Amino acid sequence: MIGDAIIVLGGYLLGSIPFGFLIPRVVRHDDIRRHGSGNVGASNVWRVYGRSLGIPVALLDIAKGFVPALVGLEVGGDWVGVLAGAAAMIGHARPVYLGFSRGGKMVATAGGVAFALAPLAAFGCVVLWLLTFAAFRYASAASMIAASALPVLSYAFGASWPIVTLTTLAAFGVIALHRHNVRRLLAGTEPRFTRTVTRGTS
Q: Is residue 195 included in any domain, yes or no?
């Protein structure tokens, strides 16, 4: 039990590492929170600084969900994997290292958790995200549609009920964190995905 608790706590602490804040700070000497949507997720980093920083942040955000979920799954089974993955997602959304202030919207980190716990479902959601984004160029819409499909695909591919429950909660969490995007989509004011050139400071 103590070992399981350490894995879950480690999931939160790993998930809390704000790569979307740290990498632009180190590389561009800039604060991502002053640009774009103001959050520290990979999508905002990509939009502001381009793929040279967006891709590393996205991969690291995926990894910080994948690693604790996989370790929990291998060491303690589905329940520990689910709890460790959930802790990583919560850490990403409310990172302790930024004083529990607003983090990212959990999309990449939830994807990493899904790849550890329900890889076939996760792969299906990646394909769905890419197709939706290619068609409409709204990262927010693609993220919400893929998140909504995750529990359905998890169930369809035979995931255990703790994993299906987590993916369902993750879908609601992702949509809740995109609530402002939903309002803008409905109002027709949501910006399509384009890169905003930001040089930062030296």
A: no
Range of the domain at 166: 2-187
Dihedrals phi, psi of 50, to nearest 5 degrees: 90, 180
The DSSP annotation for 64-118 comes to: HHHHHHHHHHHHH-HHHHHHHHHHHHHHHHS-GGGTT-----SHHHHHHHHHHH-
Number of structural domains the chain divides into: 1
Q: Which amino acid, 11? A: G
Per-residue pLDDT of the chain (202 residues; tens, 9 = 90+): 888 999 999 999 999 999 999 999 999 999 999 998 888 999 999 989 999 999 999 999 999 999 999 999 999 999 999 999 999 999 999 999 999 998 999 999 999 999 999 999 999 999 999 999 999 989 999 999 999 999 999 999 999 999 999 999 999 999 999 999 999 999 999 888 775 555 544 3
Q: Give pTM, 2 decimals.
A: 0.91
64: nearest Cα among 104, 118, 120, 121 = 104
In a domain, 199, yes or no: no
**Residue 198, φ and ψ in degrees, nearest 5:** -130, 120
**Rg of the Cα trace of the chain?**
16
